[in-house]
């Protein structure tokens, strides 16, 4: 048997490394030497030209514009636009909803992920997700780097947009958490059987998965010139999302839809220049 304490210690170190790695490009993209800093920042500046401009002052107006765009999206489908990605997300979510009663019992009854779940708990991962853009913004302030500051604000905007939509989904669906069932369930009556309080844990969809993927999507896009950044960003988002399943806080379909919503909102509602 593998000792749990060493495993948990390694996982905590991986979380810390990932936090530093995610903020690394914001710290390293410039140089103390004024003559050499311009070439290092040129790839970021060219990328910023096609991205949305954001500041603390414009953030509220951006959020309102995003919400309008998100909620009138069905009108785009009526115009025969975006059908393929919509079918992929709806189809994938539907398939997972159908399989949820069969996949949830394993994670509800096994102790194989206890160490993993302890480190990647809801509190720990929530703090980690918030710390990444906060660290990037702090580095941006220290180094007077407007690109890093904008990246952090765009990540915050993507989270706020996804969270607002999540509240509506949870309030309507009132889905139970797997951990509200005992052993093998049955789990087939999860929808509309739980609380309709949108601020309750669990539910459809996973706000942790949405948050992790939306922040990862912004950072991976903005710092894509550093080839390792997307791997670290999406890798950590994947681990955080998976932990919501192994801890029985969410069904797989909740996590899949949360991640899909986080990516779509970040990449297509928040990042494009308006």
Tell me what the structure shows.
It is a single chain. The chain is mostly helical and 274 residues long. It has one domain (44-270). The protein has helices spanning 4-28, 34-48, 59-71, 73-78, 83-109, 114-119, 122-142, 146-173, 207-222, 228-246, 252-270.
Domain unit count: 1
Average predicted local confidence, pLDDT: 86
Number of strands: 0
Order of helices and strands: HHHHHHHHHHH
Low-pLDDT ranges: 30-42
Largest sheet: none
Which class best fits the helix and strand makeup?
mainly alpha
- The total count of helices amounts to 11
Give the helix level as a range of percent.
over 70%
β-strand amount: under 5%
Q: Terminal Cα separation, in Å?
A: 55 Å
What radius of gyration results from the CA coordinates? 20 Å
Shape type: globular
């Amino acid at each position: 048997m593998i000792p749990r304490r060493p495993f948990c210690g390694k996982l905590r170190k991986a979380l810390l490394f990932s936090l530093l790695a995610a903020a690394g490009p914001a710290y390293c993209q410039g140089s103390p030497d004024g003559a050499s800093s311009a070439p290092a920042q040129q790839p970021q500046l060219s990328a910023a030209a096609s991205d949305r401009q954001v500041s603390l002052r414009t953030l509220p107006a951006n959020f309102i514009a995003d919400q309008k765009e998100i909620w009138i999206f069905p009108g785009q489908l009526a115009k025969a636009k975006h059908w393929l990605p919509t079918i992929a997300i709806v189809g994938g979510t539907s398939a997972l909803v159908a399989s949820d009663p069969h996949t949830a019992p394993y994670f509800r009854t096994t102790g194989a992920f206890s160490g993993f779940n302890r480190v990647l708990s809801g509190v720990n991962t929530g703090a980690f997700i918030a710390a990444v853009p906060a660290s990037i913004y702090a580095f941006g302030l220290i180094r007077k780097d407007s690109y890093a500051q904008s990246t952090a604000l765009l990540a915050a905007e993507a989270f706020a947009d996804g969270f607002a939509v999540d509240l509506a989904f949870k309030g309507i669906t009132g889905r139970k958490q797997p951990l509200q069932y005992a052993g093998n369930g049955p789990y087939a009556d999860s929808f509309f059987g739980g609380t309709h309080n949108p601020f309750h844990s669990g539910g459809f969809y996973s706000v942790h998965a949405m948050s992790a993927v939306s922040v990862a999507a912004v950072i991976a896009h903005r710092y894509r010139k550093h080839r390792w950044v997307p791997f670290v960003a999406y890798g950590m988002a994947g681990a955080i999302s998976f932990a919501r399943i192994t801890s029985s806080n969410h069904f797989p379909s909740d996590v899949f839809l949360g991640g899909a919503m986080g990516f779509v909102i970040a990449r297509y509602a928040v990042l494009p220049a308006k």
